[in-house]
């Protein structure tokens, strides 16, 4: 059986500002988010969901997007 030679990509968000003792974990096919306060975890989740929506509209996968373009899309989708 031949292995898929295409690299697999996955984004990981880590929040370090929790103080309420909750363990927050959000997992999706192409990203995972762990930790953070409720606000931080929510913002990271929103950012990545919107990022993957943008990639989908462009007909691109995470694996096919160069780092600079991905960085620009993430930055655009990060709530203020």
Global structural class: alpha+beta
Instruction: Please write the string of helix (H) and strand (E) elements.
Output: EEEHH
Number of strands: 3
Query: What is the number of independent domains?
Result: 1
How many H/I helices? 2
Region (Disordered): 56-80
Structure write-up:
The protein has about 80 residues and is of the alpha+beta class. The protein has one domain (about 10-75). Helices cover about 40% and strands about 15% of the residues. It contains 2 helices and 3 strands; from the N terminus they run E-E-E-H-H. The protein has helices at about 40-55, 65-75; strands spanning about 10-15, 25, 30-35. Strands 1-3-2 form a 3-stranded mixed beta sheet, with helices on one face. Strand 2 (about 25) and strand 3 form a beta hairpin. Helix 1 (about 40-55) packs across helix 2 (about 65-75). The longest helix has 20 residues, at about 40-55. The termini are far apart. The mean pLDDT is about 90.
């Amino acid at each position: 059986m031949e292995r898929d030679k295409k690299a697999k990509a996955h984004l990981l968000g880590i929040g370090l500002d929790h103080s309420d003792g909750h363990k927050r974990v959000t997992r999706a096919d192409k990203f995972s988010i762990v930790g953070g306060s409720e606000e931080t975890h929510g913002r990271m989740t929103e950012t990545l969901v919107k990022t993957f929506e943008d990639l989908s509209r462009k007909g691109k996968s995470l694996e096919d997007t160069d780092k600079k373009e991905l960085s620009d899309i993430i930055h655009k989708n990060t709530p203020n």
